[in-house]
TrEMBL record:
Keyword Cell inner membrane: no
Stretches assigned to the Major facilitator superfamily (MFS) profile domain: 13-436
Record's bilayer topology term: Multi-pass membrane protein
Transmembrane segments: 12-36, 66-86, 93-112, 154-178, 184-202, 245-267, 279-304, 316-337, 343-364, 376-401, 413-432
Superkingdom assignment: Eukaryota
Chief place of localization: membrane
UniProt protein name: Major facilitator superfamily (MFS) profile domain-containing protein
A single Gene Ontology CC term: membrane
Cell compartments where the protein resides: Membrane
Length: 454
């Protein structure tokens, strides 16, 4: 039987999965750009201490910190239960449920944002729970559907969801003529449609999917061990969580993601208060700046998978240095560019994001090649580091920045993050390897071993 998609149904799976990842990320991050629009909405007002009226949607810095922290705490609490569900019953039901929960919380946000701070924070917490499913889904899709010689490409596509969501969110907010509330409604409806589509298309095992040809199945399973293909659901958690290789992968991920999250959450405020751009320009610049590095991301992934005259471990070290170490250098430079050279600052930030494009061939690829069939657990734990960054980022800003228009205060935040990237990069040269761990070669373990090590 001739299939419309030929021997490439895995591409349909990765694209629909990617769009769902974009939806969940957009749902929780849209608030950081609409903060600027919301405080100018006087349809609902509250009285200040001196008796004047202000918008009920005008949140102070502490309130914004709590709103962002709620997502981080939700993600922290949801990461390991979500990973357990993904391992035990697969990605289909947990990821679909997370997507629908995210859409509902997003659709309700305009109704509660100006009414009750605590209900608003609770909705943000639920969005964090939903967001905790993202990296477990990435790991599962890569482990089940990606051929080993397409690993970096799959990683590049799936992990670019944060960048694409930023572009979409910026574009919607900048161009919306119906007000900030409609941005939330549109996100909620489109997210629901995407997840229903994904639920109808996706299966956890390609061997059981009628749309996968025998030729494509052979390509997906090529060079994978029997233990990898069988996937007996017994995860050696102790061995994973005590592996120096995996711990270094997580630390590199934490430093790189901390930088990206800080940019996604606070770039609009920095552009407005320090660099002096207006809201429309901010939306456009944020989208353009983020979009620039997308082509680099896929080129880097292609090179990582296809270059054969350099050893795999050398490629991993080169890509990781560009994705982690060079990001730190760029962040320091960005922090010291004078506000009057605002275009230069935007260009510097765009270059920084281009360096991030190399991460699919760096720590992500190292973790996937080393953990093999357990890569879903390893990549899911990267989500944990990401949600920790959702807390440490606002905490750093809260610690150093009391005046959002003070550039020197922001520079302390940038230098702190840069220092962590340098440490992580050095450790990667000590511990990274490209070979599968011994614990990936064990097809089964006894009940006693499962209790102790798994």
């Amino acid at each position: 039987m001739t299939r419309l998609w030929g021997n490439y149904f895995r591409i349909i799976i990765v694209v629909t999965s990617f769009l769902c990842l974009v939806s969940i990320c957009s749902n929780h991050s849209i608030i950081n750009l609409t903060f600027i629009c919301m405080k100018e909405d006087f349809s609902l007002t509250t009285a200040t201490e001196n008796g004047t009226l202000k918008s009920a949607y005008d949140f102070n810095q502490n309130q914004k910190t709590y709103i962002n922290w709620a997502v981080g705490f939700g993600t922290i609490l949801g990461t390991f239960p979500m990973n357990y569900l993904f391992v035990r019953i697969g990605a289909r039901i947990p990821f679909f449920s997370a997507g629908i929960l995210s859409a509902i919380a997003t659709g309700l946000t305009p109704f509660v944002a100006g009414q009750s701070m605590w209900i608003f924070v609770t909705l943000r917490f639920l969005q964090g729970i939903s967001y905790s499913a993202d990296f477990a889904a990435i790991g599962m899709v890569i482990s089940k559907w990606a051929p080993l010689n397409e690993t970096a490409i799959f990683i590049a596509i799936l992990t670019s969801f944060t960048s694409i969501s930023s572009i979409i969110t910026s574009g919607l907010c900048a161009s919306s003529t119906f007000g900030w509330k409609w941005s939330f409604y549109l996100h909620a409806v489109s997210g629901s449609i995407l997840f229903v589509t994904w639920f109808l298309l996706y299966k956890d095992d390609p061997t059981l999917h009628k749309s996968v040809s025998s030729k494509e199945l052979l390509k997906i399973q090529k060079n994978k061990s029997e233990a990898h293909i069988k996937d007996n659901k017994i995860v050696p958690y102790l061995k994973i969580f005590t592996s120096p290789v995996i711990l270094t992968v997580w630390f590199c991920a934490f430093t790189e993601l901390s930088t990206f999250i800080l940019i996604s959450q606070y770039a609009p405020a920095y552009f407005r208060e320090v660099l002096g751009f207006d809201i429309v320009t901010i939306g456009l610049l944020n989208g353009i700046m983020t979009a620039i590095h997308i082509p680099f991301r896929f080129v880097c992934a292609f090179l990582s998978d296809k270059i054969s005259f350099i050893s795999e471990i050398t490629k991993i070290h080169i890509f990781n240095t560009l994705a982690v170490g060079c990001v730190g250098i760029s962040f320091i430079v960005f922090g010291f560019i004078p506000a009057k050279h605002n275009i230069t600052a935007v260009v510097c930030l765009a270059i920084l994001e281009c360096f991030m494009s190399f991460n699919s061939g760096g720590f992500y690829k190292c973790g996937t090649l080393h953990a093999r069939q357990f890569s879903s657990t390893v990549i899911s734990a990267i989500q944990f580091s990401k949600c920790v960054a959702l807390i440490t980022g606002p905490a750093l800003v809260n610690l150093f920045v009391s005046d959002e228009s003070n550039q020197s205060q922001w520079s302390h935040v940038f230098m702190t993050l840069a220092a962590t990237t340098f440490v992580a990069n050095i450790l990667s040269f000590v511990y990274f390897m490209d070979q599968p761990a011994e614990w990936t070669k064990e097809e089964n373990c006894s009940k006693k071993e499962q209790d102790v090590n798994c």
